[in-house]
Protein: DUF3943 domain-containing protein
Organism: Corallococcus macrosporus
Amino acid sequence: MRSERPSRAALAHVATVLLLATVFPSQARGFPADAPLARQEPTVQATGNAALEAAPGCQEPEPPRRHPWLALGEVTAVNTAVWAVNRYIRKRDWAEVSPEVWGRNLTSGFEWDADKFTANQLDHPYHGGIYYNIGRDNGLSYWEAAPLTFLGSLQWEVFGENNPPSANDVINTSIGGLAVGEVLYRLSSMILDNGATGWERGGREVAAGLLNPGRGFSRVVRGEAWRVGPTPREWTPAHFAGFARAGFLQEGAGDAGQEGSGRFVLGLGMRHGDPFLDDFRKPFDSFAVDASFIVRQGHFLGQADAQGLLAVTSLSRRPRWQVLLGAYQFYDFVDIGNYQVGAQSFSGSLLYRHELTGAMDVRAALDLRGVALAAISSIPSETNERGYDYGPGVGVTLRAALGSWPWEYLGVELETSWIHTLDGVVKDHLIHEGRLHADIPVYRGLGLGGSLQLFRRDTLISNERPDPVQTPRFQVFVSWH
């Protein structure tokens, strides 16, 4: 979708999602944020009557019927409504389409558009999440809803605007929509209660619809918003926790000889499920989301990332340690002034956990990533007015932490990626990100901590030395868990 300025709707929605997650969903079905822990694994694996007792009110209904054609019709209706608003109310030039425009778009091939970074890397994944959730609410699985998300994006690119179809839009909307959409689906599930009636039912449906518009629209179309019935047990995760951080951020300017500035920063995040403690069955049964918001002109969301487990199998299991082999999907968004990176990627991952005393443990992960598409800030030129390049790549990430689920007391993350430029300045990029953080418990759910981060980009040009840009960040904060 074309945008003359980045939409603030997706930014506001990210903040709302994470804020609701830290306050409401962790109490949705009576599961404390920190229970059950490592030494209570039998309760997580409970089945039959024991499982129903552990989650009162959560009955298992019949498997949902699939409605793929209804889902496609709803996606078409959403695209038509969005186009009509832009064409007849907002009077956007790019919304003036005709059969001649459609024919040209069907035969002209794809381009790389010049929209702003936030529009392409944040707004498009959010819109893809709407398509995806229409599919999920119509009984489709993660894998089955993926083609619908692609079709919704392609339908808009060809029929919804008079610009040539954009390759980066289709990729960001389709792949990013899977990650953003499944996170919204899981969180809205924690709010919904099919057995509720009256004002409680109405309040839950409205809250879930605001959190997840695609699903809310679909539930109204099919009458599920008011139909009373059993609530699937899978809507209640065995482990869930939200957390928040507030503090002071000192951010480097990224250029030698320039002094950075200090700002207030708010961090929000959540942990849903655990690959070591829970019975993994479906993609995103375990996922994590983190975001930081900074008060400054022109920028609000500084960083956001989501990682969802797609599949996992055990390689080795001992009384006090485990090794797993997993596959993850990653969504990354970094916008800190002159350093911008947005990426859609997948990984094969080795996961390790070693139990210590009590509920404490040490965890580590090694991710080998394949980057489907990354956007990396660069110097604008006559051929690249966007100010950032597009391309695929590969990367490796090392993560390690000491803590007690979901609280990480000490942690380190190191990541290196190589991105091959397909569109933009004719250069490849090396991206390095490092983070060292501490978050020490002080009183009950309160903690004190700090972190040191370094972002570095080396732009590679043949027969020339790398052109590095690096941005250090240091912050101190008070945390709530």
User: Anything to note?
Assistant: The longest helix spans residues 167-191. The mean pLDDT is 85.
